[in-house]
Amino acid sequence: MITTVTLNVSVDKAYKIKGSVRPGTVSRVEECTNTAGGKGLNVARIVDLCGEEVQAAGFAGGFNGGYVRKMLDEDGIQHQFTEVKSETRSCINILAEDGTSTEYLEPGAPVTEEEWQRFLQDFAWMTENSSVITISGSAPQGLEAECYKTLIEEVKRQGKQVILDTSGVYLEEGLKAVPTMIKPNQEELEALLGTRIQNRQELIKAGKQLKNWGIPFVVISAGADGALLICEDGIYHGRPPKLEAVNPVGCGDSMVGAFAVAMSRSKTPEEALAFAVAVSAANAMNEGTGRFQSEDMEQILGNVSVERIQD
Ligand SMILES: Nc1ncnc2c1ncn2[C@@H]1O[C@H](COP(=O)(O)OP(=O)(O)OP(=O)(O)O)[C@@H](O)[C@H]1O
Ligand SMILES: [Mg+2]
């Protein structure tokens, strides 16, 4: 079993409109698609598509909370959300005919201390029945920056593996508990280390620095250029073949989901990297977020290159 943590769940609404966004006017929406949103839920869909058992943890409340649960039910994904008093937020992405994307993200109501304590209890038993836990995205208001550090400490106390994919203060604080794997992109890494990274050499140096903090698997994702994996076995660069990207949103989450699956199947680091690059690249070829076609993935997997670049 793999548990995915999504503290900032939302109902994601994609509005397709004709022409362009025109501020101060009324616009008709041509098409509206609702999705169970939050990065950890993308991870959950990917794990499920890879054929592993998954359960989604997080907070859900009100009518929107019920709606998110229903959408996950339709996808056949188990969820054990901690019920909160406030309504789960909505996030709106306006996709205009001119190719622009304009997002409005609700802040979400603050989580209370009592709700957080209930979540910690739920999380402890969900960890007990899992081999790998993923933690993704930001946290709602009301929670301390150390919230992920607390979760990682619990996972490690139980001797399980944990992947942390977040940014800013949540990453900074979470790292103090030394997760099994992190997956920053270059921007997140630069913000964390407070430096600019100009080339692959510097990227490797930054990855090694994090590895030296004790993190066993440091993955640095680089979009169409694939990803670097820095671990005890060595440093590897996994590259997808050239492909037609349709929607790269959620590629990072797809990579996290695939690594969680590979970890639960005790794959070697090289095998895990090739698989994660193939799954995430197949997600880029799919219109949906956190979705892929098995045929695309299999075909890409046969053409992924994994180069060992340094000992
Ligand atoms: N255009 C693309 N073509 C092929 N593979 C891609 C493409 N974009 C992303 N990928 C795959 O997805 C992985 C993760 O992508 P990326 O580095 O963009 O993550 P990210 O910045 O964390 O994204 P997000 O957080 O928005 O999901 C890459 O390492 C690569 O394997
Ligand atoms: Mg990301």
Walkthrough of the structure:
This protein has 311 residues and is α/β, with parallel strands linked by helices. It folds into two domains: 1-22 and 29-165, Ribokinase (UDP-N-acetylmuramoyl-L-alanine:D-glutamate ligase, 3-Layer(aba) Sandwich); 181-310, UDP-N-acetylmuramoyl-L-alanine:D-glutamate ligase, CATH 3.40.1190. Helix content is 38%, strand content 25%. The strands form two sheets. Strands 1, 4, 5, 6, 9, 10, 11, 12, 13, 14 and 15 form an eleven-stranded mixed β-sheet that branches. It has a four-stranded mixed β-sheet with strand order 3-2-7-8. The longest helix has 16 residues, at 113-128. The structure holds adenosine-5'-triphosphate and magnesium ion (MG).
Short description:
This is Tagatose-6-phosphate kinase. This protein is an alpha/beta fold and 311 residues long.
